[in-house]
Amino acid sequence: MIWRVFRFFLFQLAGGILGYRMALGVHPLEGAVAGMFVASASWVAWDLTRAQRLFRWLREGDITNPPAVAGLWGEAADRVRRLLRTRDRALHESEARLQEFLAAIQASPNGIILLDGGGRIEWCNQTAVEHFGLDARRDLQQHIGNLVRDPQFAAYQAGGDYAHDVAIPGPASTSSRPVRLSVHLHRYGEGRKLMMSRDITTLEQADAMRRDFVANVSHEIRTPLTVLAGFVETMQSLALGDADRQRYLGLMAQQAQRMQSLVDDLLTLSRLEGSPPPGMDEWVDVRQIMEHCTLEGRSLSEMMAPQGHVLTALMAQDCAVAGSRSELFSAAVNLVNNAVRYTPAGGNIQLLWRILEDGQGEFSVTDSGPGIAPEHLPRITERFYRVDRSRSRETGGTGLGLAIVKHVAHRHGAQLRIDSTPGRGSTFAIVIPASRIRAASAPA
Ligand code: ADP
């Protein structure tokens, strides 16, 4: 600054000397004053030009291109440029952080909507768009109550008690495909709200399934238990003859057996659900499965009806299957037992193992039984679902057989295919992927 003032005076002095010399012999003193005045005016004009360039640069706002001005104005330009660059960098950083933050919220599996003090949408992520059928742009600044019109939500929002969430149907919910959403409001900032939504459809379905399952199991156990308790009471209160006693004990044993089968099947299911899927290190000969099934089927058939069934087994290729021996035996036996139990005496049952054209292996059981009406087929593998309840009970069914078969099939990457025509019979087939099949090591 001192140097600048010094230079100003130097400039004036030079102007004064120049004026003095130019007016020498006429009016040297006036010439010196005029020279100093001209020097001051030019100094100010020059300074103003530089200031003008600096202001133009500031107005244009392009900080990358500062004016090349010397002196104090140049220094001011440099300071301003540095300040602006620091501010710009901070702005970029906070913008990047904001974008990262928004990207993280976008990636959230939960729907998130930010509401202003008046309940209008300020921002929402893609999941919220899907949950509520919103349009992320068009619906901005729209009141949430106009877009989520469920009365339960309206009451929840108006109530102001946001300690818990509220479960409402999603806008895409239909009776055949229900969608349930859990919505939770959280207060933040000044009157703002964060609205979180979660798809709880599968959770609620699983919960309903669990409740149904417990109710079904209780019901299945209570029936034989009640019968058993009745017999015990009768035997305690009545003096029965030997023949009656034997008959009652036989019936009691039957009920106990029923409960035993139910518990066995339940344990099998829980083992299947709780253990890792079978690997590729154990190979089971299909021949052994076929032999075991034939023996089991024939002995059940003889037990059920004196004339039995015509049971045949055909193995087109001698193969081995990678998987759990006990699970594959159990699934195959379940299918054969069902065929025997539901096919009237004298009917045909055929077991077949073959390799399909695409290399998959198929184990199938075809019977000439009553068949299954198409409306039952989608639900037939559900636990405790029965088409013919009384036939199932009479023959000692638990209602869990096909659920076990389906589970075993899925654990082996296989599929359970059911093909049935009422009155003509059924074919139940387990189709095993080619990767789990190889030629049997033992000769055919
Ligand atoms: P269950 O122990 O009652 O046999 P499953 O799960 O094995 O239970 O079978 C479910 C229902 O599917 C049975 O109750 C029966 O109505 C029907 N079903 C199964 N296999 C056959 C079959 N081979 N022929 C006709 N109906 C069958």
General description of the model:
The termini are far apart. The model has no long low-confidence stretch (mean pLDDT 92). It is elongated and about 160 Å long. The chain has helices at 2-22, 28-60, 71-106, 126-132, 144-147, 151-159, 201-237, 242-274, 286-304, 325-342, 389-394, 401-411, and strands at residues 111-115, 121-124, 166-169, 180-188, 192-199, 283-285, 310-315, 319-322, 348-355, 361-367, 415-421, 425-432, 437-439. A hairpin with a 3-residue loop joins strand 11 (415-421) and strand 12. The strands form 3 sheets. Strands 2-1-5-4-3 form a 5-stranded antiparallel beta sheet, with helices on both faces. The protein folds into 4 domains: 2-94, no CATH class; 108-199, Beta-Lactamase (2-Layer Sandwich), CATH 3.30.450.20; 207-274, Signal transduction histidine kinase, dimerisation/phosphotransfer (DHp) domain (Helix Hairpins), CATH 1.10.287; 283-439, Histidine kinase-like ATPase, C-terminal domain (Heat Shock Protein 90), CATH 3.30.565. 53% of the residues lie in helices and 17% in strands. By secondary structure, it is α+β, with helices and mostly antiparallel strands. Adenosine-5'-diphosphate (ADP) is lined by residues 338-339, 342, 367, 369-370, 372, 380, 386-388, 392, 397-403, 426.
